[in-house]
Design brief:
7-stranded parallel β-sheet; 5-stranded mixed β-sheet; alpha/beta
Length: 920
């Protein structure tokens, strides 16, 4: 706070005029936050010990006048539903979910009608008449039941209002508007009962009709005084929205015909340094705030930051901001709560609701969980260390369980802990039972957390915040037991969870002040940093959450978006009023969720620039590095060389060689470090899984014919076993995965079709006279490669899909489920064979030919690919083209040329001086 602040002036005025009766004084402020600062201002100006005057917010004051307790929006919705059921025919009654969709908007309108003391019957009948006029031209016979229900809804509005008002009044509870109307009705009695008290209203701007009436009545009775905080620049300009409301009060209030208007100040036109800074995205703004504060500390290390305020136009910016503040910021006071959306306990309970509501929706009798929902729960940080469910997680991943029944979970995890049982017990005994179960769960989680570490203490705070919300819901449902659907409970939970904010602890009067726009009311600071100065954020955009049309609002004197904008305008200009250094940050991006054009307030400052204001505009962009990423380079240590020698003995597979060509780092991770991919549930069948299924199916179908020549009858036998074997392979490879619907059913059909098409081609070849003898299926072969350029012999070892003898030639076949074309198997030059990954299939099939050469018994060898996505091309053999000549038989000379290139590749792999270099 600063020396000439509004609260300091109020404190001085109170001491000057009321020091002899401070205990009789009640000061009413727009919000609760300002109370601490006002007490501090009073303490600084008084040398003796005194009893402080009563200081309360305007809402608390109105409740005192009305003698009615305020209820939150969810409780109000429950009460309104009770009323709705009591006055609606049973056949026309809607479920709570449908009712809530329109009831929230209607309650908002009831609230406005009451706050502005309008005659409810007149307003609500007016709405019904408007709807009647809209439907004027519809013939009686054309009116549908839906239209009749629609018209009846508008007719019922006055009744809804009257019965709800009576229902709440009898309970002495109410929404804000009802409390304001009751306060006005109780004003005379309150004035008499508070005859010895004196009320001071300070720092107000926009008042509703009820507030105006109450304040004017107390002023007229000489029981109150009001002090405004408005600058002459705003009040004297008839078009400036910052003074919109105060100008009206100054003109219309009877009190000001004969009394002075206090206070009009001259602060805004003083010397101000205003920097408007544009930077991309929300994170850019957070970093910018950190940079501004760091510079401030650097230039004045001993200066306190309690005169600096960061006002967030958007609450989502809070966490990025906290991470962006420099370490030199000592004390910090945050008036905003930590959003429940980020509360780890809330995230767990939300996932729990999702898991159980989905299970009930699928089948309430068998209660089927979705694996992702189960894993989300079991791997949550509040569950994983204590539920002892790691074995279950491994089982789900290993066996590809996509959907798991409640019974199956119990079978897979028989010795369940208390925490595990509470998480997975069925939600089938109604909402009260579910809420009690969640309460018990939260108590178990609390018991698991220690009090020794700061992290666990914070975690307990989060658990407690959600525990309070669940208790609140339990109380609601205990009173309204007819609303007993889990889906409804989940919907209400998602609304009520916003009440579960966790407050930050800090010294309110010391250090940097971080707050939202509304928390800044009545407060003044030397330096103000305002973020999210974009249209739609600051000011907030238009929102028509009302059944009352705009023109009717204008006619009745209800606030429209113009008045709401004017409230924002006042808050903004009040922030600037006494500040000397102002930083206004906005997002320069024109698209995206948090984007929008620059705020009109910035344009207004520019157009209506005061002589003493220095206004500068800057755009800051993050520095982009010249290099996005530096390729990883791993030198070959002694341990690496030992592992390479070990692989040379065990065997380099053709896929290992192509893996090195694709990316040496990939080879290093897989072969040297032996890092495997994490085993996860394969919800939709991956291409490699589909390939495995096709390979294994063909192996099983052809196994009975190894060493025999195929006949038409052989292929027909394969056809008869096809569907059964594909299904069997799916179960073996995909385990418990769901294959009866969705993408997996399509994959199953694709696998069948691929194998079937292959068999059709095979049958056609036999009919055309091909003599096919199956020699080997899915068999491993190996051969040692010795060469003068290699440091030691290297074993080449690999698994060949199929080797056959066809028409007097050995044919080595590699199946590919992807698409391979003839050009992929043609080589024009041996030079650089191992440098291009496009040659990977050639390297692979020729490696198989090298391994099998000694077993060929002098028969010519062909090596190639059968592509299931290109079956019409049949067998695609490797071909070497030299000019117009082409050679497809893998001769000794051709193999010798190939091996020279493989030696070049292996020499690089085994060379200690050549590091593994990442390919980007």
């Amino acid at each position: 706070m600063i020396e000439n602040s509004f609260l300091n002036k109020i404190a001085a005025k109170i001491i000057e005029d009321y020091s002899n009766r401070l205990s009789d004084i009640t000061i009413i402020l727009p919000n609760k936050r300002a109370k601490v600062f006002l007490i501090e201002s009073l303490a600084q100006q008084i040398n003796t010990t005194i009893l402080s005057p009563t200081i309360i917010s305007v809402e608390d004051f109105i409740q005192d006048v009305a003698k009615v307790r305020s209820i939150d929006s969810i409780e109000l919705l429950f009460e309104f539903y009770e009323v709705y059921l009591s006055i609606t025919d049973k056949k026309n009654q809607q479920s709570f979910e449908l009712f809530a969709n329109w009831a929230k908007t209607l309650l908002q309108d009831f609230n406005e009608i009451d706050r502005y003391l309008l005659e409810p019957n007149h307003v609500l009948t007016y709405l019904k008449d408007i709807e009647d006029i809209k439907k004027w031209g519809i013939e009686v016979e054309s009116k549908t039941q839906l239209l009749e229900n629609y018209i009846d809804f508008w007719k019922l509005l006055p009744k809804y209002y009257q019965v709800l008002y009576s229902h709440l009044s009898n309970k002495r509870v109410g929404y804000q508007g009802l409390i304001y109307r009751e306060a006005v009705g109780n004003l005379q009695q309150f004035s008499k009962s508070a005859a010895n008290e004196y009320f001071i209203f300070a720092g107000f701007n926009a008042l509703n009709a009820a507030e105006e009436k109450i304040i004017q009545h107390l002023i007229a009775n000489d029981q109150a005084k009001i002090y405004w905080d408005i600058d002459q620049v705003f009040i004297n300009d008839p078009f400036h929205d910052a003074g919109l409301f105060v100008r009206r009060f100054k003109e219309n209030w009877k009190h000001y015909k004969s009394n002075p208007f206090e206070w009009i100040v001259e602060d805004f036109s003083g010397v101000k340094n205003i920097q408007v800074i544009g930077t991309p995205k929300m994170i850019g703004q957070a970093k910018m705030v950190g940079s501004i504060i760091e510079n401030k500390i650097m230039h004045a290390p001993n200066t306190s930051l309690n005169k600096v305020a960061v006002v967030l136009g958007e609450e989502n910016l809070l966490i990025p901001l906290l991470y962006s503040l420099p370490e030199s910021v000592g004390a910090l006071n945050i008036t905003m709560g930590y959003s429940s959306k980020n509360n780890p306990t809330q995230i767990l309970i939300n996932k729990l609701f999702k898991m159980h509501t989905n299970a009930i929706a699928r089948s309430s009798s068998s209660y089927v969980f979705y694996y992702k929902d189960v894993l989300d729960i079991l791997t949550h940080p509040l569950v994983e260390p204590y539920a002892k469910g790691n074995d279950l997680v491994k089982l789900i991943n290993k066996n590809n369980y996509t959907f798991i029944t409640h019974k199956k979970i119990s079978e897979l995890h028989p010795n369940a802990s208390e925490l595990f049982t509470l998480l997975f017990q069925k939600w089938e005994n109604g909402t009260i039972s579910v809420l009690n179960s969640i309460s018990s769960l939260l108590l178990v989680i609390k018991a698991n957390l220690s009090t020794d570490t700061q992290e666990d203490k914070i975690a307990k705070t989060f658990v407690y915040a959600i525990f309070k919300v669940i208790n609140k819901l339990t109380n609601y449902y205990a009173k309204h037991q007819h609303i007993d659907k889990i889906e409804t409970l989940y919907a209400i939970y998602k609304q009520v969870i916003d009440l579960a904010e966790v407050s930050f602890e800090g010294e309110p009067l010391n250090g940097l002040q971080v707050m939202g726009v509304l928390e800044s009311r009545v407060l003044d600071f030397d330096t103000v940093i305002v973020t999210s100065m974009n249209e739609g954020k600051f000011p907030a955009g238009k929102s028509q959450n009302s059944f009352i049309p705009y023109d009717v609002k204008r006619e009745l004197g209800l606030p429209t978006f113009k008045e709401k904008d004017a409230i924002y305008t006042y808050h903004f200009y009040h922030l600037l009023q006494r500040a000397k250094n102002i930083y206004l940050l906005y997002n320069t991006e024109s698209d995206g969720l948090d984007a929008g054009e620059r705020s009109r307030f910035i344009t207004q400052l520019e157009v209506e620039k005061q002589p003493n204001h220095t206004l500068t505009f800057d755009i800051y962009n993050p520095i982009l590095p010249d290099v996005a990423a530096v390729p990883i380079s791993i030198p070959k240590s002694e341990a690496v060389m030992e592992r390479l020698a070990e692989i040379a003995k065990i065997g380099f597979s053709p896929s290992a060689l192509t893996s090195y060509i694709r990316n040496p780092i990939q080879f290093y991770l897989q072969k040297i470090l032996r890092i495997r991919e994490v085993e996860e549930v394969e919800e939709n069948i991956a291409l490699n899984t589909l390939g495995t299924i096709i390979h294994e199916t063909l192996k099983v179908l052809y196994e009975p014919f190894i060493g025999k020549f195929l006949s038409e009858e052989s292929i027909k036998i394969c056809f008869s076993l096809l569907e059964k074997e594909v299904l069997n392979q799916f179960k073996l490879v995909y385990k418990e995965g769901e294959i009866n619907k969705g993408k997996n059913l399509l994959a199953f059909e694709v696998a069948k079709r691929n194998v079937s098409n292959f068999l059709k081609v095979e049958l056609e070849n036999i009919k055309q006279g091909d003599a096919i003898k199956i020699l080997h299926l899915e068999e491993t072969f190996e051969r040692t490669l010795t060469h003068d350029d290699l440091p030691f012999p290297v074993l080449i070892r690999g698994n060949v899909d199929r080797i056959e003898e066809r028409n007097g030639k050995i044919r080595i076949i590699d199946y590919k489920t992807g698409k391979v074309e003839k050009r992929n198997m043609v080589l024009k030059s041996w030079e650089g064979l191992s440098l291009d990954i496009k040659n990977d299939k050639i390297i692979q099939v020729l490696a198989y030919a090298f391994m099998y050469e000694n077993n060929s018994k002098g028969l010519p060898i062909e090596a190639g690919i059968i592509s299931f996505k290109n079956l019409k091309s049949g067998f695609l053999p490797f071909e070497f083209k030299s000019g117009k000549e082409s050679e497809s038989i893998v001769s000794e000379g051709l193999l010798s040329d190939y091996l020279e290139q493989i030696v070049v590749l292996l020499r690089e792999v085994l060379d200690v001086t050549i590091s593994f270099e990442e390919k980007i």
